[in-house]
Amino acid sequence: xxxxxxxxxxxxxxxxxxxxxxxxxxxxxxxxxxxxxxxxxxxxxxxxxxxxxxxxxxxxxxxxxxxxxxxxxxxxxxxxxxxxxxxxxxxxxxxxxxxxxxxxxxxxxxxxxxxxxxxxxxxxxxxxxxxxxxxxxxxxxxxxxxxxxxxxxxxxxxxxxxxxxxxxxxxxxxxxxxxxxxxxxxxxxxxxxxxxxxxxxxxxxxxxxxxxxxxxxxxxxxxxxxxxxxxxxxxxxxxxxxxxx
Length: 245
Fold this sequence. Notes:
Blueprint: H1 3-6, H2 26-34, H3 47-57, E1 64-67, H4 75-81, E2 85-89, H5 93-102, E3 107-111, E4 119-123, E5 128-132, E6 146-152, H6 163-172, E7 174-186, H7 201-208, E8 212-221, E9 236-244
Parallel strand pairs: 1-2, 1-6, 2-5, 6-7
Antiparallel strand pairs: 3-4, 4-5, 7-9, 8-9
């Protein structure tokens, strides 16, 4: 392992305010799906999660797992296939339908009575439910508490000005002895406006530190050729485990 590229103590960028006023609307996110601008989707699933999954699950079954801003993440099926109950929220109906189609899962849809004009999509097996609505409306549905949250591509996509509201929503969904798995990206925010946005360690502490123990499990070089178009020359991904204090 190259200690200068994957160690957990790489210096973070000091200009953390440069992206604070960046805003993407829900309509702009929906347009990304319509126009196929979904390079954030990982067809093979997230490799850090795959690496640590069995350690996190510890042989348990029947856990409730929440996927914020789930898109069509294949990891949802990983958990469902291991006997867990998966709930996701995604603003794009297209993304949700693509998930069920690509995973060859039959499903039904029904209105979310608490949020007029929205739907929930449920697998025929009953262990995957995907809510098509804003994540900030989700608490109105009384979906209950979760044992685990897999947050990859969610906190980094939320408008920086909405992070406190987002974090409070996530914390309100956590049950006892929870595991909150969080992936964030580290790059020079003066070179790329986001999303995905740069989320430094201090921001995670600010958002979750009063309630959670915070541990960075791994930091890996995530730079790909496509990231050159962002104007950056390095990109790291960090996997955090947040647990109950």
